[in-house]
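Researcher: Following up on the earlier apo prediction. This time include the ligand. It's pyridoxal-5'-phosphate, with the SMILES given after the sequence.
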Amino acid sequence: MSDRYSRSRQLLERARHSLTGGVSSPFRAHFPVPLYFESGQGPRLRDVDGNEYVDYTLAWGPNILGYAHPRVTEAVARQALGAHTFGAQHAVEPEVSEKFQRAVPCAERVAFTSSGSEAVQLAMRLARAHTGRNVVLKFEGHYHGWMDSALISYRAPVDQMGPEDEPAITFGSKGQVPNAAGNAMVAPWNDIEAVERRFAANPGKIAAVITEPVLCNGGCMMPGEGYLAALREIATRHGALLIFDEVITGFRMTLGGAQAHYGVTPDLATFGKAMGAGMPLSAIAGRRDIMELMMTGGVAFGGTFNGNPMSLTAANVALDVLAENDGAALKQANDTGYAIQSALREAAAAAGIPIHVCGFGTAFSVHFNERTSMVRFRDMLSNDKDRLAKYVRGMLDEGVYLLPDGRMYVSCVHGAREIDETAAAARRVFATL
Ligand SMILES: Cc1ncc(COP(=O)(O)O)c(C=O)c1O
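Model: Understood. Below is the ligand-bound prediction.
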């Protein structure tokens, strides 16, 4: 077998004997070939075999400014000569939280954490403390990290999903505490009546509704017209909080996230990925009275690396770059993404392959099906998975690096050259499907 990935395979084989599975996150083992990388520059990656790729994974999202953005690199290098972490206050913290406040509508107060999963955990805890209720209503197919109370009804096996209107509560992992399910409720997304029914049947029980404002982890499906505003209204009417999980949409869809785009302000929102431009950083932002519970309301919250200066220095620069010229960088990134979507649709049509592309400019998914619209997680179940796998592998061989589920992230430094190369690769690959 000709093997342009031989060095990666050798390293994987070696790593297996010490590193569980040879990878640092089991999700990463799903790639057709779990590649080992050497470097990244702008929108491009180079693996240890010397292969170069136009990259649409952006490290599962964070590299919104591409790899090794010069201004971020320079600032982080300078900070590295100072201190890597203090476990105490430093001047960059309020700089970033003030930029956050200016950009994000709900951000009366901000707290920094290190991963999206942690930020979600904190949001749920705050919601429970604030309302004195336990149940968090989430939506089928939405991913909010891997903590016990969050990893519920996310991509369950089809035979365990239950009816579409009443999705079953399913665990995402062995070893989750069973009573996590007792504090979770699940509804189909983009169905406001389903949310009304759950509130009506459980008066005074639901602490919060949590949603990805765009279902990025379930095929990049968009919220229906007025859906997020309706969630806002129902939550308020029932004394529950609305939490937007903007770990993907934050600092990507617009500078102020999906909440700015849709004009719907949640009580709390979680952020990660793009805000650190490649450094590990996440945050929770929200109403002052709720956030202050961490200081004066008995809500415990910690984290050795919270607010560490390396990550915040990266964020400080990244938020400047993204905010400059009235947010021109993200507007251009979204335009580039829409151009890539069109190019993929054209390439597929030319080859007679039915695809459905949905999402927004900087985060979208290619689905192999004949649908004309996709609104719920289960709409993905009829996708042709074999064809997707062949497409992802074909694109890899053509030098275009994609996530295994067909999702694509576009950065501010992808441009005309990447659009052309991706279109040409897609034409060749679709012709083989
Ligand atoms: C919407 C959403 N929330 C939370 C998380 C968890 O973030 P992390 O992987 O940083 O823990 C993710 C990760 O992909 C995510 O997409």
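Model: The first helix runs from residue 6 to 16.
Researcher: Noted. I'll compare it with the apo version next.
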